[in-house]
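Working notes for the structural subgroup meeting. M.R. asked for a predicted model of this chain before we commit to crystallization trials. I am recording the input and output together here so anyone reviewing the notebook later can reproduce the run.

Input as submitted:
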Amino acid sequence: MASEKTPKHTNRLIEEKSPYLLQHAHNPVDWHPWGEEAFAEAAREDKLVLVSIGYATCHWCHVMERESFENEELAGYLNANFVPIKVDREERPDVDKIYMDALHAMGQQGGWPLNMFCAPDGRPVTGGTYFPPAGIPGRRGFREILELLVNVWRNDREQLFQNAEALTTHLRSQAGLTASPDEQWDYRPIETAVALYAQTFDRTHGGFALQPQNKFPPSMGLMLLLRHHARSGDSAALEMVEHTLKKMVAGGIYDQLGGGLSRYSTDHEWLVPHFEKMLYDNALFLQALTEAHQVTGKPFYRAYAEDVIEYVLRDMTSPEGAFFSAEDADSEGEEGKFYVWRPEELRALLNPEEAETAEAYWGVTEEGNFEHGATILSTPRPLPEVARELGRDEEIFAEQLQAAREKLLAARGGRIRPLRDDKTLTSWNGLMIAALARAGRAFGEQRYIEAAERAGRFVLANLRDGDGRLLRRYREGEARFKGYLVDHSQLAVACLELYEATFVSDWFGEALALMREVNRLFRNEDGPYFDTGMDAEQLLARNMDGYDGVEPSGNSAAALAFLRLHAYGVREGFREDALRIFCGFSEHLRKSGVSFSAMLNALALFLEPPWEVAIVGDPEAAETQAMLDTVQRPFRPGLVVAHATPGDVAGSAKVVPLLEGRDAANGKPTAYVCRDMTCDLPVHSAQELERQLSEA
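Returned structure, recorded in C-alpha cell form:
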C-alpha cells in the first residue's frame, strides 16, 4: 500500500519543468507531454488523441483536474481508449493557437482548459473547454463525450476524418495573410477604434463593455487613448483613461494590501476579481499608469505605479532578478481565500481605531461581498470622505490606514499562499523590463532601471541555446522551446527601453540583433511575420497573428521595434518591414482596431514623423541632465533619444547611428533635434530644447 508521501500514480509529466505539467504528474491519467512519441503511440494503437491545454494558475483547469483527471474510473476509461497529451499553453502558444482557432471554427467560445480531440496525426476533430465529469443542463459530461467519440471512432470514423480535414483546411487558409503594396494609411483606423471605445465606455465604473460578463484590464486600449489625446487634444479620451484607472485601483481587482492587478473582474464594477495575477497584466498596467502620470503630472498615478512595482519586486522576482509568470487564484483549494477578510480578523490584528479605519475605508462588513460572508477589500469612497464621516483628521486617517495596511499585509503573509508559477517567459519578461525602464525614466528612480537591467541581463544570458538561438522558457536551470516572434520582438522593445534609460549602447545592439533575427527566422516576404521560426517544429499551420489579446502580438511588437530602430537611423528596410505588417492586417486594423490597440500604437509612430534627439554632454553636468529630463520625464511617445559623453561619441555612433557626427559644440552640452529629414540648429539648454520640441 502506498504511503501518504508516495504518490499512487506517476506519469511521464514528472520529467517536465512546467509547473502546470507537474501539477498533473500524479494523476491516474497516463499523460504524455507534447511530442512525436505520443502521436506515434496513437497511430500504433489506433486511438484518438486528447490534447488538453491549460496553464498553472487557471482555476477551471484545477476544477477539471480534481473532478475528472483525478477520478480513477474516468482516467481508466481515458487511458484505455485515447492517448492523452498535456500542454502548457504558456510554453507552447503555437500549439494552443492552432487548437483554439479550431475551437472557434466550430463556433465555440474559447477559454481554458482547452480539450481538443484529434486524429492520430494531430488533426482536430472536435473539442471544448471545461467538461464536468457528468452531464449538467446545457453541458455534456466528460464520460459521455468520451464514450460518444469511442463509438464514432469504432463505427463511423469517416465522419471524424471529414471533420478533421475540414478543420485543417480552414486553419491553413486562415493562417496565410498577404500585404497589398498599394495600401494607403492615415489616422482613420485609430479614430475608428477611439470612437468604438467611446461608444462602449462605462461612464459609471470605467472600462469598456466589450464582454458580456467579465471585465478585463484594457491597458493597451488606454495607452492608445493617451496617444490619441496627445496628438489631437481630445479631452474625452483622457477622461476615459483617468476614470478607468481610478475605478480599477479602487476595486477588488486591485490588491489593496499587496499591490498588483488580478486577471479580470467577474462583474462590471471591478469588485469581484478572478484572483490570479499575471505578469503581463501588471506590466501593461504599470505602463498605462506611468503614462497617465506623464500626461497629467498627477502624483496619484505615480503612487499606484510604484505600488505595482513594489508588488512585482517583492513577490514576482527571482533571486537572480528574472520575473516569475503568475500567481494562482486558489489557495487551499478555494478561489480567493488568501485575499479576503472578515471583521473579526481585522479586530484581532489591529487596534480599535485602526480596525475602524480599515473597515470603513475598505468596505469590510459583517455580511461581506464575497462567498461565506468574506469581504474583498476595495475603496468605494475616497479617503477624505471616509475620514470626515469618522470625524478624523485626513492626515491622521491616512497614517492609520497605512499602519493597518502594513499589519494586515504582514498577517496575510502567514497564510498559505497561492501557487506561484515560477517559470520565466521571455516575452512576458520583456514587457515588465520595458515597463520598469519606462517608469524609472519617468520618475527618475534608478532602482527601477537597475531591476530592469538585471532581468534583461538574465534573459539574454540564460534563455539561449548553444548556438545563441533565443528560447521561450527558463525554469530550474533549464531553458527550452525555441523563442517565438513575440519573444524576439518584445525583448527588442525592452532593450530599446533599457537603452533610453541607461544609454548603454550594448542594449541598443541587442535590440538590433534581435530584429535582424526576426527577419532571418520569421520573415514572410508577402505579408506579416510568422509566429514561429523557420527552424521550429512543423505544425498543422504556420500562423501570423496580429491580435493584441493578453499582450501585444509578435507582429505588433515587431512593428514598433522596427520603427524605433528606423528612427535611430538604422537603414535596413525596417520601415518597409513595419509597413508590410500594417498592410497584412489592414482589414483588422480598419474594422476591429480595439482588438489591435498595440498595433495601432505602432501605426501612430509610422504616421507621425518621430522626433530624433541626440544629446552629447557629461551626464554629471546639470545642464546635460536637465536636457535629458526634458525628453525623458514628459509623455513623448513619438520621440527617440540617444546620448553619449563627449569622449565616447565615436564609439557609441558605431552602434547607434543617430549619434554619428554629433559632438559637444564649443565644449558645452549639446542637443541635436531632427524630424522628418530636417534638423534644427544645435542647442545648449533645456529651455531651447523644449522650445524646439514644442514647435509643430
